[in-house]
Amino acid sequence: MLHHTITAETPIHPSFRVAQVAGMFDVPLADKSVVRFEVELPALDDDWQIGLIVGPSGSGKSTVAKAAFGSQLYQGAEWPADRAVVDAFGEVPVRKVLELFTAVGFGSPPSWIKPYAVLSNGERFRCDLARALSQQQDVIVFDEFTSVVDRTVAKVCSAAIAKGIRQGRIDGRFVAVTCHYDVAEWLEPDWTLDMATGELSRRRLRRPEVRLEISRCGVEAWRLFARHHYLSGSLNRSARCYLATWEGEPVMFCATLPVIGRRHHRRFTRIVTLPDYQGLGIGMRVVAAVAEHERSAGDRVNVTSSHPALIAHCQRSPLWRTRSVRTAARGSRRNERFAGYRSSAGRCVVSFEYVGEGSKLGGTDFRPPETLPSE
Fold it and tell me: How much is the pLDDT for 231?
């Protein structure tokens, strides 16, 4: 633990209006304004991964962060107007950029190839986070954390960062500086400095439970999700469709089709989580719940994808088994477990089969289709 005494000095520029304001509100005039902060912060060599500096506007959060962490405070940078966001990371390899995008919950390939200016506020915020985290530093300090996004995006993005750091998909440590107290339990910091009280707490909060309700729906629901899918926006009218909601709001859609020529064998044809909810792991939990539901009815269920996040998840999960790997440019296949991506002109596509273990799907409510209306 380190004790910091931080002094912030601001020059006062005299003028007639300054003198008027000082006289009207009895503000003492001096050559400069001096504010002093006495705080404690964990040392850099202490055992922690995530920190949080929080407090009301004007409480000195940014001043303390800058004095305590110096050059590790992310300063931000301009985004090029004529280039896609994926091209704005300098010499960082594209695979690393995509890993960072996914880790902060920016998992939509159609948005990766767009300029920063046309993205939503939530997508821009995630891009800024990914760019900050791409820097080769032991600690990244991000000021005004979640200040420009709505509170749902703020919570989801906080959980995504915490998940990425805890799982080792984001290198280094992270300190958020914000006036919003509502992100604390979603970020799950190892320590929190509250500038309102000056107190440092060393306890890790527990993230709130996310309970989803999954229902059968009609193909019309696809219209809300189609533009966020990285392949064709069309959907076969005979698809069996499912909608996941969180607190009554639609968050994720998936659909299955029969595998041609194979009885009692289905495959996922569409899997889309809305951008504001990406990063929590919602998508693959819903996919697993739907696969378990269809498997319990006697069907085998496969998912085939080239999306790196989906492939990485299925590789790690005991619920899925690799069935085939195909590099589109070479037409190659192999049945051993997929070890890594190939650099080729085509897409690398991996197929997994759901093998079960319904006991691992806690936290998801599934309502059988026969109890629901068609839409």
Answer: 67
**Domain extent at residue 328:** 212-371
Longest dimension (CA), the chain: 87
Q: Is residue 8 part of a domain?
A: no
Q: Please tell me whether residues 231 and 346 are part of one structural domain.
A: yes
Please answer whether residues 52 and 189 qualify as being in contact, where contact means their C-beta atoms are separated by less than 8 angstroms.
yes
- Tokens read off for 209: 């439970």
Q: Are the beta carbons of 354 and 291 closer than 8 angstroms?
A: yes
Q: Mean pLDDT in runs of 10 for the chain (375 residues)? A: 83 91 88 86 91 95 93 90 96 92 88 95 94 91 93 92 90 95 96 95 87 95 89 85 95 96 94 91 94 95 90 93 78 43 57 77 45 33
pTM for the model:
0.80
Tell me, yes or no, whether 262 and 287 share the same domain. Answer: yes
- What is the torsional sign of CA 84, 281, 216, 231? positive
3-state DSSP assignment of residue 299? coil
pLDDT at position 88:
95
Whether 220 and 334 map to the same domain: the answer is yes
For the sheet with 199-201, list strands across it.
Answer: 139-142, 173-178, 50-54, 191-194, 199-201
Contact 313, 284 (CB under 8 A): yes
Nearest to 129 by CA among 278, 309, 271: 278
Whether 156 and 109 map to the same domain: the answer is yes
Q: Where are the beta strands (DSSP E) in the chain?
A: 2-11, 32-41, 50-54, 139-142, 173-178, 191-194, 199-201, 212-217, 240-246, 249-258, 265-273, 300-305, 320-327, 332-334, 348-354, 364-366
